[in-house]
Amino acid sequence: MKTIHERLDEIFPRITDSSFQENKGLGNEVGYHIFDYHPEYEMLVRNHVAFLKDRINHDSSSQRIVEFDLYEVVLEILDDKGYLQKNFQMEEKKGSSYVLNATRKALRLTLNNDLVIQYIAERVQENDIIFITGIGKVFPMIRSHVILNNLHKAAGQIPVVLFFPGRYDGQELQLFGEIKDENYYRAFQLVSE
């Protein structure tokens, strides 16, 4: 079994390989990849994501990594819509469960006009690589399989890497290694353990 450092070191050569960018060998499926890791390595993974973005975005003219921290995306959308302060007030009066459901509705999650998916779509270009982070921070508001199931609307043929604090065995996502998400079969493990 590889260490977390060995697995992180394998990301750069993997995502800079031409077959990754062109989605070769995937049966013409959208290039969705999951880098799963033990939640205890969250800060190490965040630092490595920042390192990869800096290295590729400054050293390459043909590739660009665009990171979407889902928690930060949700906060920005709510703030732009004028809902963020209202959410704080509503939580005080009606509780967290009420705010959670109201926020999901406000974000239009899973609908054709899903605001998170629209946010991503407006910020990516053809030669980008999408990094999705913050899935642990935004739980239970957004579930990883919901993003992956709807991201094709924004990503098209752009490769996507979801950094997942938990386990992915090629079929099942388990957030934090404990919370079972819906099965998801379309993603490939970016780096094996």
Automatic annotation (TrEMBL):
Top-level taxon: Bacteria
Protein known as: DUF1788 domain-containing protein
